[in-house]
């Protein structure tokens, strides 16, 4: 049935006004960079109120302290103790993955109304919106895990070297950024 449908779609012609609209190249009044600068300022102001509130900070602090107390100065002397620290890392990864995904899930429905309206008016490119949204979200998605890891890493008794801390922190940031961008 699929080849028949493809043949029927090829045989159908679009109305003339739609063909002309597709052929006309869209000229933007502003460059991509100018649109990016304007939209990023607006998006950052809007997202700052959402991301940097006391409740989110308290949540990150509370969970960091709770995990730090649960894994207080855990050792890696035996295989069971090492598995405990691996379990902590797994929990941290799951926590930050779900936090960043739910952050994107909750923000987009509110912005969708404005996005559709502004896109119909051809105010900016969709690529500009996506890049601005992703970069503005990135500020919070880097700040909170950094704050979180500074507390948990030292309370849980992970290896206290600069390279180990930054490798662990870099791994958590990759997980957070990947889960935020993939949505």
TrEMBL record:
<dbReference type="GO" id="GO:0140359">
    <property type="term" value="F:ABC-type transporter activity"/>
</dbReference>
<dbReference type="Pfam" id="PF01061">
    <property type="entry name" value="ABC2_membrane"/>
</dbReference>
<feature type="domain" description="ABC-2 type transporter transmembrane">
    <location>
        <begin position="34"/>
        <end position="179"/>
    </location>
</feature>
<feature type="transmembrane region" description="Helical">
    <location>
        <begin position="55"/>
        <end position="72"/>
    </location>
</feature>
<keyword id="KW-0472">Membrane</keyword>
<feature type="transmembrane region" description="Helical">
    <location>
        <begin position="128"/>
        <end position="154"/>
    </location>
</feature>
<dbReference type="InterPro" id="IPR013525">
    <property type="entry name" value="ABC2_TM"/>
</dbReference>
<protein>
    <recommendedName>
        <fullName>ABC-2 type transporter transmembrane domain-containing protein</fullName>
    </recommendedName>
</protein>
<keyword id="KW-1133">Transmembrane helix</keyword>
<dbReference type="InterPro" id="IPR050352">
    <property type="entry name" value="ABCG_transporters"/>
</dbReference>
<keyword id="KW-0813">Transport</keyword>
<feature type="transmembrane region" description="Helical">
    <location>
        <begin position="88"/>
        <end position="108"/>
    </location>
</feature>
<dbReference type="GO" id="GO:0016020">
    <property type="term" value="C:membrane"/>
</dbReference>
<feature type="transmembrane region" description="Helical">
    <location>
        <begin position="160"/>
        <end position="178"/>
    </location>
</feature>
<keyword id="KW-0812">Transmembrane</keyword>
């Amino acid at each position: 049935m699929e080849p028949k449908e493809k043949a029927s779609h090829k045989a159908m012609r679009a109305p003339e006004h739609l063909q002309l609209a597709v052929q006309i190249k869209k000229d933007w009044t502003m460059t991509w960079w100018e649109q990016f600068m304007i939209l990023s300022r607006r998006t950052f102001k809007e997202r700052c109120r959402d991301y940097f509130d006391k409740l989110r900070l308290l949540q990150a602090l509370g969970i960091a302290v709770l995990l730090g107390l649960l894994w207080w100065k855990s050792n890696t002397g035996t295989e069971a103790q090492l598995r405990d620290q691996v379990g902590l890392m797994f929990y941290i990864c799951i926590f930050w993955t779900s936090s960043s995904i739910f952050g994107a899930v909750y923000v987009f429905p509110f912005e969708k109304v404005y996005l559709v309206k502004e896109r119909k008016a051809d105010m900016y490119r969709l690529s500009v919106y996506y890049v601005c949204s992703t970069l503005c979200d990135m500020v919070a998605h880097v700040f909170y895990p950094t704050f979180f890891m500074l507390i948990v890493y030292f309370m849980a008794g992970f290896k206290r070297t600069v390279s180990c801390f930054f490798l662990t922190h870099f791994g958590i940031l990759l997980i957070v950024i990947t889960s935020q961008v993939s949505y």
